[in-house]
């Protein structure tokens, strides 16, 4: 991935936990409403010993937050009622913030596609996150990284030499067939965005769910498809 300039990903958030030994970036997410962040459920496995959760919005460098960044506390965590850890089925969660966020050049809302958008036809897609760049360094990076990816047909992704049926119908597959660019473990919940084919804006089409290792051939990243949960999101956020 390459370093992201401030303001280039105005919808991404860093979800951070405070434990006895300090505050750590755990997952990424996306702001979709002034009071709601969309992320993945797997972030909250083992959440019992967390003193508090915070959400950092409008930041790219986590080691030095600029004046444009804001920190909010989480009022409520809503995990999908049919989430299955391990298989990562229905891997989606919503975080209600303590206060509404004010939008700015550095803080914008992500757009979740309705059922009518043909996501599979979108050509220009990117992923972002603070994940490590190689498996040996599983500490999150402090500067947001981005990479261009291609959507890969889920049937191909599910074929015997790829993921052999482990990808769910509510997932998307993105990366490159020969590997090399992908998301890593530190990026859970990181957004997958694709540019609209007719207009100059991006859709929030997925969130990093899982993958086998990092950037291997026939092992692209698997993303929860936000479009498939559009109605669930509306229902929860009222």
Automatic annotation (TrEMBL):
Please provide, alphabetically and separated by semicolons, the GO molecular function terms listed in this UniProt record. serine-type endopeptidase activity
EC class of the enzyme, as a word? hydrolase
Keyword Calcium set for record? no
Q: Gene3D superfamilies this protein is in?
A: Trypsin-like serine proteases
Ranges for domain Peptidase S1: 1-238
Reactions this protein catalyses: Preferential cleavage: Arg-|-Xaa, Lys-|-Xaa
Sorted alphabetically, the keyword list is: Disulfide bond, Hydrolase, Protease, Serine protease
Q: Does the keyword Disulfide bond apply?
A: yes
Q: Which InterPro entries does the entry link to?
A: Peptidase_S1_PA, Peptidase_S1_PA_chymotrypsin, Peptidase_S1A, Trypsin_dom, TRYPSIN_SER
Q: Which CDD domains does this UniProt record tie to the protein?
A: Tryp_SPc
Any one Gene Ontology BP term: proteolysis
Q: What is its EC number?
A: 3.4.21.10
The protein here is known as: Acrosin
Classification of source organism:
Eukaryota, Metazoa, Chordata, Craniata, Vertebrata
Name of the gene encoding the protein in the UniProt record:
Acr_1
